[in-house]
Design goal:
Elements lengths: L1 H28 L27 E3 L2 E5 L4 E12 L2 E11 L4 E5 L1 E2 L5 E3 L1 E5 L2 E5 L1 E5 L5 E10 L2 E10 L4 E10 L2 H4 L8 E12 L4 E5 L2 E5 L2 E7 L2 E5 L6 E3 L2 E5 L3 E13 L3 E10 L4 E11 L3 E14 L8 E14 L7 E10 L11 H4 L7 E11 L5 E12 L4 E17 L10 H4 L2 E15 L6 H6 L1 E16 L3 E14 L2 E7 L4 E7 L3 E14 L1 E6 L6 E17 L10 E5 L5 E5 L14 E17 L7 E17 L10 E9 L4 E15 L9 E23 L9 H4 L2 E2 L8 E2 L5 E2 L4 E12 L8 E12 L5 E10 L4 E2 L3 E8 L2 E8 L6 E8 L2 H4 L3 E5 L9
Antiparallel strand pairs: 1-3, 2-3, 3-4, 4-5, 4-8, 5-10, 6-7, 8-9, 9-11, 10-11, 11-12, 12-13, 13-14, 14-15, 14-16, 15-18, 16-17, 19-21, 20-21, 21-22, 22-23, 23-24, 24-25, 25-26, 26-27, 27-28, 28-29, 29-30, 30-31, 31-32, 32-35, 33-34, 35-37, 36-37, 37-40, 38-39, 40-41, 41-42, 42-43, 43-44, ...
Keywords: Signal
Protein name: LPS assembly outer membrane protein LptD (Organic solvent tolerance protein OstA)
Length: about 850
């Protein structure tokens, strides 16, 4: 029988091989138009296309197949992988006939889902209770799906996936609550609920489009309902309308604040334009542009132009003021170009800009207290081989008290790097000649002092001055007698200017006249110095067992002689004389008030001295490992003055004493200065001004005294930092996760606080005045963290002379999970305002969900 079977198999194989060969030969010999008895296309066998485009991979603890129904059942730790999709669930069923995949989460004994289905596609994770997926159409339906997008999460009762880019959601909520997203809490502190949401996703961005959507706080519905909402989720910038705040004020009427539009411009720029509109005529527009090129530069340009209208036109209380502000900040990356650097810090404002009462921003940030505003644009050029640095600067300084402005347009400085005049013979410089150094450079300045109304007008250009200065400084030093340093120096100044003055008395007008000469003039001056200094050390030791072990004193005395000729002499032509209105012969410098300054008058042959001191004390200390601690009594204590041998009167200068020290482990900082006039000043009976400085030497009256103290206090100074995790076992949950609890169930946390205390006292006597000017104030600036979520901060100053509180600000902030609350208040002084804000922290909703309330300063009533 075995032979028969083998024979049959062999015969069948031969027939199949022959037929296959014959079919191959016939196929090759058939013409393009085959005869009718050939096999037609209708009779050919068509291979059915596979229902799956890829391999469907499955795994589970328990797998069961139903071949008649073409079903696969996966139980416990079930997983299905298909193309870029992965489904993990407790239970999955696959219907091969209908190309359907069904997944369900893990159930508890009551049939409630306790572990969700996790679907991952294209790196994105989705959580659902139940999930239906059609492998043929690639459409899906999910129930209680949880989708994280950007800063928030969407949870919908039913979600239908039409394609990889379009999702339709029914009864969906959206929230940015960080605790809810990270599953630290089962309920969001706020959410927005919509009956229908459409999620559109592309490669570059995604967005939510909803119908009516309502805000819920702690699951309580609020009356805030929006007819529709569009939330873009994208790491890239996108254009859009900026939502304004609105309200009503008695002085300006109804208003819209902050209405505007945001527009990205290319890869490196963006533009934002905001506007404030008031029904009684006031308005304000604020464009702002930001730009950045990575590793090259970054900057910001902003402007603020507006008109403030008060009162009713035609009545006495009507007034209209226009204000403006132009600001520009530009910073170049230090690595972009080491030889060329450009920077700008421009802030030009109108005189009354910070006093604009349409808003209180400038009151709360203390800009309203500014008396000076400075703007600078700088270009610096360095060279690889040339020992020079060129710096071009344009500066604009505004003085709000006087209403004047100083403009330097432009100012250029060419600095030559310091070099030695002679080469060293041995490689080690020694002696006066080998140590001679030269410092020189050029400074070109165009300067004018003007007011706001004259800026860039003919009046300003007429007053513009141009000056060129060159300075050459020579210096050398050497060691004398091992312990002394001997120094020599010379200084030469050369100056040119386009404006000088001429003074004379006009008998017709009966007054002194000053005329300006626009011709080019200049001067040259020089001076020389010689000085010698050394360092002396002294030590005073105390008995053994004393708290103070020793006091160390380091003294650095120096004596120097300075000489310069009298450049006020008639031979130089820098000074001239005229008879004033009283008939007195009065000298004046033709460069007086000019941009390059005036040369000195009177010969100087002065011997100056300076005595520097540093005093330290060694005391016993248990806290130090060495058992000894150094205490600085005076970090520096300097006494300086001079005696001019060439002076006809008052050869002694004002004596000055400056001291600096710190105590309590360098926490308390003390700076003080004292100036003494060695000559007696007398006053006429009954007069407190017009004092006469006599030649009576030795009285040393106080002309100025200043002392400044500052002490930064903090919680770390007064106690060691507690390791709460080791000290307390119990830790809070959800919102209380930053708290630890002791055995009595009291909350413990790091209650950090800071308090900066500063005090200042100044005593000043101007020349010829008997009554001095005194200023004394105490200031406080600090913050305290009442809880991990509450922070209070503020600052105040008390004037002890006027006995009044100066500018005072109090503020607090509260971290309310998804919301942040800020309150700032200025309760005293001319500006009494407050500002309250509450809003969503997440950037995507920060402009839409917010509330802001503020008070405004009112204009003073007309007299």
């Amino acid at each position: 029988m075995a032979k028969t079977v083998l024979k049959n198999i062999l015969q069948i194989s031969i027939i199949l091989i022959f037929n296959s060969f014959l079919a191959q030969e016939t196929s090759e010999k058939l013409p393009k138009n085959a005869v009718n008895d050939t096999i037609s296309k209708k009779d050919t066998i068509v291979v059915k296309k596979e229902s799956l485009d890829d391999i469907l991979q499955t795994k589970a603890d328990n797998i069961r197949r139903d071949f008649p129904k073409k079903m696969i059942y996966l139980n416990k730790k079930a997983q299905v992988k298909y193309q870029d999709m992965q489904i993990d669930a407790d239970y999955i069923s696959i219907d091969e006939k209908k190309s359907l995949v069904y997944a369900r989460g893990k159930l508890d004994s009551l049939g409630k889902i306790i572990e969700p289905v996790i679907t991952t596609q294209a790196g994105k994770k989705y959580e659902t209770n139940e999930f239906h997926y059609n492998t043929k159409t690639k459409q899906a339906v999910a129930y209680n799906a949880r989708t994280e997008e950007s800063e928030g999460v969407i949870i919908a009762k039913k979600t239908k996936k039409y394609s990889d880019s379009v999702f339709a959601m029914k009864n969906a909520m959206y929230t940015t609550d960080e605790y809810f997203i990270k599953k630290k809490d089962t309920a969001a502190d706020y959410h927005m609920l919509a009956s229908n949401i459409k999620l559109i996703k592309t490669k570059e961005k995604s967005q939510i489009i909803t119908g009516p959507i309502q805000l819920y706080i702690e699951r309580v519905p609020t009356p805030l309902i929006m007819p529709f909402a569009i939330l873009p989720f994208s790491s890239k910038r996108s254009a859009g309308i900026l939502i304004p705040s609105f309200g009503e004020r008695q002085d300006v009427g109804f208003f819209l604040n902050g209405i505007g539009y945001y527009q990205p411009i290319g890869e490196h720029f963006d533009l934002k334009v905001l506007a404030d509109i008031y029904t009684k005529g006031s308005w304000d527009i604020r464009p702002e542009m930001n730009y950045m090129k990575k590793y090259r530069y970054s900057g910001n340009f902003s402007a603020d132009v507006g008109t403030m209208v008060r009162g009713i036109k035609g009545l006495d209380d009507y007034n209209k003021n226009s204000t403006y502000r132009i600001a520009w900040r530009h910073t170049q990356d230090t690595k972009a170009n080491p030889f060329l650097n450009f920077s700008a810090s421009v802030d030009v404002v109108s005189t009354k800009f910070y006093n604009n009462t349409l808003n209180n921003n400038y009151i709360l940030n203390q800009n309203v207290l500014n008396t000076q505003q400075n703007s600078t644009v700088t270009l610096t050029k360095r060279f690889l081989k040339l020992p020079a640095t060129i710096t071009a600067t344009t500066s604009y300084s505004q003085n709000f008290a006087t209403g004047t402005s100083d403009l330097r347009l432009p100012q250029m400085n060419v600095a030559i790097n310091q070099f030695y005049l002679f080469k060293s013979k041995t490689g080690v410089r020694s002696g006066l000649l080998e140590n001679i150094t030269v410092n020189t450079g050029l400074n070109l300045t165009n300067y004018v002092q003007t007011n706001e109304g004259e800026l860039f007008k003919k009046e300003m250009w007429d007053k513009l001055q141009t000056g060129l200065k060159n300075n050459i400084a020579l210096g050398t030093n050497t060691t004398v007698a091992k312990y002394f340093t001997f120094s020599l120096g010379a200084n030469i100044d050369n100056a040119l200017t386009t404006k000088t003055i001429k003074r004379f008395y006009d008998p017709v007008a009966s007054k002194d006249i000053t005329e300006t000469d626009k011709g080019i003039a200049g001067y040259s001056t020089f001076s020389s110095t010689a000085s010698i200094q050394t360092t002396l050390y002294g030590m005073m030791k105390f008995k053994k067992g004393s708290t103070i072990e020793a006091i160390r004193h380091m003294m650095t005395p120096s004596i120097g002689f300075t000489y310069s000729p009298d450049f006020g002499g008639s031979g130089y032509g820098y000074y001239k004389n005229y008879y004033n209105a009283s008939g007195a012969l009065t000298p004046y410098s033709i460069f007086e008030g000019g941009i390059v300054g005036s040369p000195t008058s009177g010969m100087v042959g002065a011997l100056g001295f300076n005595i520097g001191n540093n005093i330290e004390m060694k005391v016993k200390s248990k806290s130090d490992s060495t058992g000894v601690k150094k205490v600085k009594l005076f970090e520096s204590l300097n006494l300086s003055g001079s005696y001019n041998f060439a002076a006809k009167d008052h050869p002694w200068s004002i004596l000055t004493i400056n001291g600096q020290s710190s105590f309590f482990n360098n926490k308390l900082s003390v700076n003080t200065s004292l100036s003494l006039d060695p000559y007696k000043i007398i006053y006429l009976p009954g007069q407190d001004t017009g004092g006469i400085r006599t030649e009576d030497f030795g009285h040393f009256s106080v002309q100025g005294f200043n002392v400044q103290l500052s002490y930064p206090l903090s919680s770390e100074i007064f106690g060691q930092k507690t390791d709460y995790a080791k000290k307390y076992k119990s830790k809070g949950e959800i919102r209380n996760e930053n708290y630890y609890f002791d055995d009595d169930n009291y909350a413990r946390f790091d209650q950090a606080w800071t308090l900066n205390v500063n005090a200042n006292y100044a005593y000043t006597k101007t020349s010829g005045n008997r009554i001095p000017t005194r200023m004394a104030s105490v200031g406080l600036d600090g913050s305290v963290k009442l809880t991990p979520f509450w922070n209070i901060n503020g600052s105040t100053h008390y004037d002890m002379v006027t006995k009044e509180l100066a500018y005072t600000r109090i503020g607090f902030s509260r971290d309310q999970r998804s919301f942040t609350i800020n309150f700032n208040w200025v309760p005293f002084g001319q500006y009494k305002v407050y500002d309250f804000f509450i809003g969503i922290k997440a950037n995507i909703l920060s402009d839409a969900l917010k509330y802001k309330d503020r008070s405004f300063t009112q204009p003073n009533p007309p007299f």
